[in-house]
Design a protein that fits this description.
- By secondary structure, this protein is an all-alpha fold.
- It has one domain.
- The chain has 16 helices and no strands.
- Helix 4 crosses helix 12 and helix 10 crosses helix 16.
- The longest helix is centred in the first third of the chain and has 39 residues.
């Protein structure tokens, strides 16, 4: 009976895992390939976004989320044990992957002068590339990696000063990576247990914010879809973009609200971002390098304390499932109100 029930419950979840193959290319960052974006321009109205199709998709993905929670509770621990065994045999700590990856990323920025952190964040300051190369050198040792972390904060601050806070809310992942590596470099005993949670939280925040952008500024993505018509698989272009936003939002939420499913969501997102590189090339590869490596680290490090806030492990299966669903709706509501409210506050 239990095996049959798992099969029934799991079918919509498997359906979700098939959807990212349709939505993968839409995860190329639109600002890198379409110069006609305007952050200060008004987003689409909420009553245009939340139409009947949007509500039906929300209901479908909420059901998938509920099923995922149940499966996670029933068999997530055994799946995590298997992944932990693989990670132990791999022998490379996730923090080393991120440290070396950050060094490679900074060298790539040095080789492409005029880029602060991502392709659309440009600067004319000739000292920036050499600053980035110096930061890359500090990642060669754990003793000096905290300097690279401080440098990332400095580059982020320069980008905020030039492009504004709202634009840079696309990239809280850089705070997470810098903080994660600084904690491992400096080794404060009280903070070490929370380094992984910081990484998971900022990766999820980055993707949750990006999913809102797909709904609020879906017109920005239309030229990208037009240039790559094969990626739409015959979908109506706007429906395709809205669907991609749902895929991104719910996979990002699973990073927070899942134990084994957090790792599974990270793996699916990893496939999505790598697949996007095939379509969009070197710019996408360099621009998404750090999020790709962060997802690898999340898979290897396993569940983190931040997940308990969203999974409520002390509650029973039924109570926990519905509390988890309520948390999901709360996160969605908070992000929608935050996105549109902050935009109105900053730009009117």
């Amino acid at each position: 009976m239990r095996r049959n029930s798992l099969r029934v419950v799991g079918s919509p979840v498997l359906g979700l895992l098939a959807v990212p193959w349709l939505a993968a290319p839409a995860h190329a960052h639109v600002k890198w390939f379409n110069d006609n974006y305007c952050v200060s321009c008004q987003p689409d109205a909420l009553d245009h976004i939340v139409d009947a199709r949007w509500v039906w998709l929300l209901a479908l993905f909420a059901l998938v989320s509920l099923c995922a929670f149940v499966i996670d509770r029933l068999c997530g621990d055994s799946a995590n044990d298997w992944i932990d065994g693989f990670a132990a045999r791999l022998g490379t700590p996730p923090e080393d992957i991120l440290r070396i990856g950050l060094g490679v990323f900074l060298v790539c920025l040095w080789l492409q002068p005029g880029v602060l952190l991502t392709p659309e964040l440009r600067t004319g300051n000739p000292a920036i590339p050499w600053f980035q190369l110096t930061l890359a050198a500090t990642t060669l040792s754990w003793r000096t990696t905290w300097i690279a972390s401080a440098g990332i904060f400095a580059l982020y601050g320069l980008a905020v000063a030039q492009y504004g806070l709202f634009h840079l809310l696309d990239y809280p992942i850089f705070f997470g990576i810098a903080g994660y590596l600084a904690i491992h470099s400096l080794g404060p005993t009280r903070l070490l247990p929370y380094a992984g949670s910081l990484l998971v939280g900022t990766v999820a925040a980055t993707l949750l914010w990006a999913s809102l952008e797909k709904w609020a500024y879906w017109l920005w993505t239309m030229p990208v879809v037009a240039q790559h018509p094969a990626i739409g698989f015959g979908f109506n272009p706007k429906a395709y973009i809205v669907l991609a936003g749902f895929v991104e939002f719910f996979l990002a939420y699973f990073l927070l609200g899942g134990r084994f499913f957090g790792r599974l969501a990270a793996a699916v997102l990893l496939v999505i971002f790598v697949a996007a590189v095939v379509d969009f090339g070197k710019i996408d590869a360099v621009g998404h390098l750090m999020i790709i490596l962060a997802l690898v680290a999340i898979i290897l490090q396993g569940p983190q304390p931040v997940g308990d806030v969203f999974t409520w492990p002390r509650l029973g299966l039924t109570q926990g499932a519905f509390v988890s669903l309520a948390m999901l709706i709360a996160v969605l509501s908070t992000y929608m109100l935050g996105y549109f409210g902050l935009h109105h506050l900053l730009y009117g």
